[in-house]
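--- STAGE predict ---
source: upstream dedup step, 1 unique chain passed
mode: sequence only
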Amino acid sequence: MASEKDDLLLRQLVMEILLEVRKGEEYLNVVLKGVLDKYNYLDGKKKAFIKKLATGCLERQTELDYVINLFSKTKTNKMKPVIRIIIEMAVYQILYMDNVYDTTACNMAVSLAKKKGFQGLSGFVNGVLRTICREKEQIAYPDKDKDFIQYATVRFSMPEWIVTLWMEQYGRETTERMLEDSLQENAVTVRVNENLASAVLEDLIGQWKKDGVKVSVHSYLPYAYVLTGGYGIQNLYGYDEGYFTVQDVSSMLVAECAGVKKDATVIDVCAAPGGKTMHVATKLNGSGKVISCEVSEYKTDKINENIERLGLKNVQVQVADATVEDADFIEKADVVLADVPCSGLGVLGKKVDIKYRLTKEQTEEIVSLQRQIVRNVCNYVKKGGTFIYSTCTVNKAENNDNVKWMTENLPLEVVSLDEELPEELRSSVGEDGTLQLFQGVHKCDGFYIAKLRKI
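--- STAGE serialize ---
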C-alpha cells in the first residue's frame, strides 16, 4: 500500500511540474530542480523516475498528443489541462518506460484523475489508455517516405519549421541524425583541470569509479571526460575541490581555437555560466587576465560562484551589456570571446523547452542582435588580435551568414580552423574555414565556431 502511495506521489509531482512548465513562464530544468530540492528525501531511483517522466513527456509531447488523438474522440486541445497531462504521462510510460507495467500506468492515471477531483472523467481516462495499450503495436504514424517532414514532426516531436529549415540547409541525412539525437539521453561531459597533478587526476577518476560512475575519456580532448551513472554531479568527489566543471566538449573547443598565450588579456563578453571564461583562465595558468562580462548581477553571481569553486585568481567578473560599447575595453584584448545569444537549435536534447517556445520569426530577430553585439565588441580586439565567434545553434543565418557579413562590414578576416582542432574534427571544417558541429553527427552538442583576426 505504501508503495502504491509513493508511486502516486511521484506521478503527481510530475503532473505539477508539467502544468507549471506549460504556463510558459519557467523552464523545465528550473521547475524540476525546485521540486527535487523540495523532495530531497526521495531516493535516487525515485528522483530519476521523476526526471525521466517529466523530461520525456515534454520532449515527446507532439507524438504523445498524436497517439492520444488517434484513439480519443475528445482531442487533446479540447481536454482539461490536468486530464491531458495525466493521459500524456500514462502514454509515455506505456510506450517508453519498459520498467512500468501498462496496467500500472493506467491505474495510476485513473487514481490521479480521481485525486485531482475528476472522478467523473476517470472512466474516460481509463478507456482511452486501455485502448492504447491494446493497439500500441499498430499505431499508424505518418509515412516516412511519402512525407518525411510530417513524419519527423510527429515522430521526433519537432516543430515543422525547424525540420524544414534543417532539411533546406543541411539535407535529409544530417537532419535525421540531429532529430534522432534530440531524443537521446545525454551523458554528462566534464572538463577536468588540465593543470592537475597526475596523482590527483588518478585519484579523482578512481574515486568516481568507486562511486559507481562509468568514466571514459572523450576522443576529441584528453581532459574531457564522459560520465554516466551516479546521482548528481555536485555530489561527486572533486566537485567542491574545483577539480572539474561541467562543460560540453563543443564549448571546450572554443578555448582550444582561441590559442591563448601566456600573459594574454581575454575579454569574454557573453560569459554566463562561465565555462569558457574558466577554461581560458585555466589555460593561462595564473598569468594574464580574463575579463568575464554578463548583462546582469544574477548572471555574474553565477560566474563568480564557479570562479571561486575552481580557485581561479586571474579572472575579473563585471556587469556589462555587450550591446553597449565600453570605452575602457577599446583595443585592450588579445582575444575576445563572443558566444552570442542564439536560437539554441544545437542543444534541443538538453533544453527540451526551446523547440516549443521558439519561432522562425524570433530566429530572424536574433540575427540582428548578434550583429549588433559583434559590431560593438570587435572594437575590443587589438589590431592583429583574435576574435572568436560562437553559438550553440545549427542555423546558417546565425552562423556562416553572420561571419560572411563580418568580413564584408568589419575589419575582420577569417582564420581557418584547420590547424586548431583535434585531428578527428579537421575534416569537418567548412570551405569558409569555420566549424559547424552537428548533434548526432559529432560527439557533442550542435555548435558553431569561427576564428577571425582583427586587421
